[in-house]
Amino acid sequence: MNDYQEIASLLIDLEAILRNRGLWASEPPSDEALASVEPFCVDTLELQEWLQFIFIPRIYWLIDAEAAMPAKCEIKPVVEEALDNPGEALLRVIGQLDDAITRAP
Questions:
Q1: 55: helix, strand or coil
Q2: Which Gene3D superfamilies match (predicted)?
């Protein structure tokens, strides 16, 4: 499995966990909320919304374009701080994504 395949598999796992925990939205946020320039859109989105509507699609876009991944990915500390009880499975997958994205070309 190459780096892109590993990351895509982890994104599928992340979506499944968010759905199972009831953290997956059925409606997208407003265009204004999505246009935030703040890190993680902290001023307009909940973290799970940022994961669903910004992070996951952006990483899939990079995979599809075979583009370079971000040089460093450190989302796990943000998840630990932003979500009251993120759960072991979510933290594990986010940590694996951090590692896989950081080491990918």
A1: helix
A2: YqcC-like
Query: Cα 28 to chain center, whole Å?
Result: 15
Residue 60 in domain: yes
Closest CA relative to residue 51, chosen from 24, 31, 73, 69 = 24
What range defines the domain where residue 71 resides?
Answer: 3-24+40-103
User: What predicted TM-score, i.e. pTM, was given to this entire model?
Assistant: 0.94
pLDDT 10s digits, 79-90? 999 999 999 999
Whether 34 is in a domain gets the answer no
88, 54 Cβ separation under 8 angstroms: no
Q: pLDDT per residue over 17-76, tens digit each?
A: 999 999 999 999 999 999 999 999 999 999 999 999 999 999 999 999 999 999 999 999
Total domains present in the chain: 1
Q: Which residues 6+ apart lie within 8 Å of 70 measured at CB?
A: 101, 102
